[in-house]
């Protein structure tokens, strides 16, 4: 074989390897990022839904100190992708617990309603995803019925506030809630820009003596921007807005209760447990920008421990 022919053959043999992509850079076969490293390039939000359906076990804790009082509201989320040919489709469950310690009176605690939901996150083009969400709660949480303990009801209300109004369906235990949402996310070169919107339809199934509204319609909106500054660290900012689309009794009594907005940011570590599994502990801090949460002196600390595999 002539030298020129041999060189050409060698280049052709290497071509498939040179076309293998890791992010935007060509790399040799076997040198690309692991599944865990690819997951780390997506900035996982704190109170938005994931834009990439994961196999997931996640414990996040909202802590809200205020003027001598405090609320703790942890939520456990778990689920997986059962269909090998549909890796953008996952099924999940969520349930929470809340403990409220007021500055006066008895402390209260409660287990929330569970939420079952499906998440479909198709990639429309490289880096652009359209996450879709649908879910429903089972109204079996504590504090339901016509004669709940006062401290339990207060704890559930405090849990709604502690989670910035973004997880209301879990805490209204006299209501069955059906919810659906849509989002959009741009994920490229370690940068994530994501937004989502959700509508929640609440239907009272018990407790007419304490909850006067037969039905309520709520909504939430959120924006997240995050960047992986180094492989180990991701920083992000978020804004959340909750608004009642109907006018429940609480809004009639206090028009300021119709909506609330919070903003903040956090830092997250990306710890590869194996080539396919990623532990992503995060810490974030949020503040309200309007009443009633601002008037109440609320502040929100979010501890997050997601494990994706």
Return the CATH architecture.
Answer: Beta Barrel
- What does the average pLDDT come to? 91
Please tell me how large the radius of gyration is: 23 Å
Indicate the proportion of strand residues. Answer: over 45%
Distance between the termini: 49 Å
Helix/strand-derived class?
A: mainly beta
Major sheet: size, sense and barrel closure?
12 strands, antiparallel, barrel
Order of helices and strands: HEEHEEEEEEEEHHEEEEHEEEEE
Q: Order of strands across the widest beta sheet?
A: 3-4-5-7-10-11-12-13-14-15-18-19
Low-confidence stretches: 1-29
* CATH structural class: Mainly Beta
**Count, helices:** 5
> Percent of residues in helical segments?
10-25%
Would you count the extended β strands for me? 19
Q: Which shape, going by the Cα principal axes? A: globular
Give the gist of this structure:
The protein has five helices and 19 strands.
Could you walk me through the main structural features you see in this protein, from its secondary elements to its overall organization?
This protein is mainly beta. The chain has a single domain (63-308), classed as Beta Barrel (Porin). The chain contains 5 helices and 19 strands. The strands form 2 sheets. Strands 3-4-5-7-10-11-12-13-14-15-18-19 form a 12-stranded antiparallel beta barrel. The protein is globular and about 65 Å long.
Helix and strand topology:
Blueprint: H1 3-18, E1 21-22, E2 25-26, H2 35-40, E3 56-66, E4 69-80, E5 89-101, E6 108-111, E7 115-120, E8 123-125, E9 128-129, E10 132-137, H3 150-162, H4 168-171, E11 175-188, E12 191-204, E13 215-230, E14 233-244, H5 249-253, E15 259-269, E16 271-272, E17 278-279, E18 282-288, E19 300-308
Antiparallel strand pairs: 1-2, 3-4, 3-19, 4-5, 5-6, 5-7, 7-10, 8-9, 9-11, 10-11, 11-12, 12-13, 13-14, 14-15, 15-18, 16-17, 17-19, 18-19
């Amino acid at each position: 074989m002539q030298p020129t022919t041999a060189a050409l053959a060698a280049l052709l043999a290497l071509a498939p390897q040179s076309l293998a992509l890791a992010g935007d850079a060509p790399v040799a076969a076997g040198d690309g990022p692991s599944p865990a490293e690819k997951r780390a390039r997506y900035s996982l939000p704190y109170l938005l839904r994931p834009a990439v359906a994961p196999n997931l076990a996640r414990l996040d804790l909202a802590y809200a100190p205020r003027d001598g009082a405090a609320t703790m509201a942890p939520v456990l989320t778990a689920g997986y992708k059962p269909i090998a040919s549909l890796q953008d489709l996952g099924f999940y469950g969520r349930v929470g617990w809340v403990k409220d310690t007021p500055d006066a009176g008895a402390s209260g605690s409660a287990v929330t309603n569970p939420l079952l939901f499906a998440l479909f996150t198709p990639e429309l083009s490289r880096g652009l995803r359209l996450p879709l969400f649908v879910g429903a709660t089972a109204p079996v949480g504590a504090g339901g019925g016509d004669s709940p303990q006062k401290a339990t009801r207060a704890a559930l209300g405090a849990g709604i506030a502690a989670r910035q109004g973004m997880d209301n369906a879990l805490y209204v235990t006299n209501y069955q809630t059906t919810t659906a949402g849509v989002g959009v996310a741009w994920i490229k070169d370690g940068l994530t820009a994501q937004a989502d919107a959700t509508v929640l339809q609440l239907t009272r199934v018990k407790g007419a003596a304490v909850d006067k509204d037969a039905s309520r319609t709520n909504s939430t909106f959120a924006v997240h921007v995050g960047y992986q500054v180094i492989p180990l660290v991701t920083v992000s900012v978020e804004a959340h807005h909750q608004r009642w689309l109907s006018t429940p009794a609480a809004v009639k009594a206090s028009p300021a209760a119709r909506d609330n907005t919070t903003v903040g940011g956090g830092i997250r570590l990306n710890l590869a447990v194996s080539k396919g599994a990623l532990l992503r502990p995060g810490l974030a801090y949020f503040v309200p920008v309007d009443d009633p949460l601002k008037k109440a002196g609320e502040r929100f600390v979010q501890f997050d421990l997601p494990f994706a595999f």
